[in-house]
């Protein structure tokens, strides 16, 4: 475990990285700035109203074409800043140890 209590190390953005949040059903969209990110979640600064973030799940759209995105769930809100967890395809929160476990399996399979 890390000194700050987080399971995954975070990468802080040196420049304002614009991203969008979009409702799972596509009915709403909010511009925001990615402040930091890890394998399991991110901290964002949201522009506009935050009321739509109370949805159970939404998408963080990382590219202008919408081809790069992450499924998210809201964890906390503090003013215009929010924290989100990334959700995997099976509906569970993304584990920080998943990439390490996948690397071990890959290494084991290639050794056989």
What is the overall pLDDT average?
79
Q: Please tally the β strands and state the result.
A: 6
Please tell me how large the radius of gyration is: 15 Å
Helix content: 10-25%
Please characterize this protein's 3D structure.
With 112 residues, this protein is mainly β. The chain has 1 helix and 6 strands; from the N terminus they run E-E-E-E-E-E-H. The protein has a 6-stranded antiparallel β-barrel. A hairpin with a 7-residue loop joins strand 4 and strand 5. It is globular and about 30 Å long. The N and C termini lie far apart (32 Å).
Q: How is the secondary structure organized here?
A:
Blueprint: E1 11-23, E2 29-37, E3 41-46, E4 58-61, E5 69-78, E6 81-86, H1 98-111
Antiparallel strand pairs: 1-2, 1-4, 2-3, 3-6, 4-5, 5-6
List its salient traits.
mainly beta; globular; disordered C terminus; six-stranded antiparallel β-barrel; 1 helix; 112 residues; 43% strand
């Amino acid at each position: 475990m890390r000194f700050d209590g987080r399971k995954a190390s975070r990468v802080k953005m040196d420049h304002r990285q614009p991203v969008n949040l979009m409702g799972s059903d596509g009915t709403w969209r909010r511009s925001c700035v990615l402040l930091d990110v890890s394998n399991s979640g991110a901290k964002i600064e949201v522009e506009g109203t935050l009321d739509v973030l109370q949805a159970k799940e939404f998408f963080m759209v990382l590219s202008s074409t919408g081809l790069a995105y992450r499924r998210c769930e809201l964890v906390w809100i503090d003013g215009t800043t929010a924290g989100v967890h990334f959700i995997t395809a099976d509906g569970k929160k993304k584990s920080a140890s998943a990439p390490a476990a996948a690397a071990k399996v890959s290494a084991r399979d290639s050794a056989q």
